[in-house]
């Protein structure tokens, strides 16, 4: 893929699409492309994270437990795995395994921080979007709490 293709792929992500084109160009330029074979493990549940992965082609199974059961979710081209890891260190909540030959773009948290430091408008747009998401999550959580109290679940 060309740099412009990578930029376009990044721009289609809801959160990353808020960044200006120059910031996306820097992020795309610093991204690392990895090729996986079917069955290759991208990362395991419980491992520390240092960034996110954007699926370019193929499919990745996401599993919460390594118990032989089917995947909890399968994601394909355009999916961003580990979005929060772009901003903070977290343990991976799932194991990610390529289901078929797959290409991913690795986006490092250190690069994201550097890019946002050089692009205050992009940083502000992302901060506002994350705040909006957090507000919506809190509202949904309050509604669940209200519903549970209504049926007297303790």
From TrEMBL:
Coiled-coil residue windows:
none
For this protein, the record's InterPro entries field holds: cNMP-bd_dom, cNMP-bd_dom_sf, Env_Response_Regulators, RmlC-like_jellyroll
Q: Which PROSITE patterns match?
A: CNMP_BINDING_3
User: Which Pfam families does this one have?
Assistant: cNMP_binding (PF00027)
Quote the SUPFAM superfamilies the UniProt record gives: cAMP-binding domain-like
Entries under Gene3D superfamilies matching the protein: Jelly Rolls
Task: Show the stretches that span the lipid bilayer.
Answer: none
Q: Which stretch is the leader sequence? A: none
Under the GO molecular function aspect, what terms does this record hold? DNA-binding transcription factor activity
Cyclic nucleotide-binding domain sequence ranges: 15-133
Q: Which GO terms describe its cellular component?
A: cytosol
Q: What is this protein called?
A: Cyclic nucleotide-binding domain-containing protein
């Amino acid at each position: 893929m060309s740099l412009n293709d990578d930029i376009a792929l990044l721009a289609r992500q809801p959160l990353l699409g808020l960044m200006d084109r120059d910031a996306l160009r820097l992020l795309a330029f610093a991204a690392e492309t990895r090729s996986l074979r079917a069955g290759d493990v991208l990362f395991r549940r419980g491992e520390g994270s240092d960034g996110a992965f954007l699926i370019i082609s193929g499919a990745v199974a996401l599993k919460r437990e390594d118990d032989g059961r089917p995947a909890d979710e399968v994601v394909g081209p355009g999916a961003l795995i580990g979005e929060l890891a772009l901003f903070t260190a977290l343990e991976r909540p799932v194991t990610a395994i390529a289901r078929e030959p797959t290409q991913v773009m690795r986006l490092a948290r250190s690069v994201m921080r550097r890019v946002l430091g050089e692009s205050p408008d992009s940083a502000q747009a992302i901060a506002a979007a994350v705040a909006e998401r957090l507000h919506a999550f809190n509202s949904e959580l309050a509604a669940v709490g209200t519903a549970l109290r209504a049926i007297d679940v303790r």
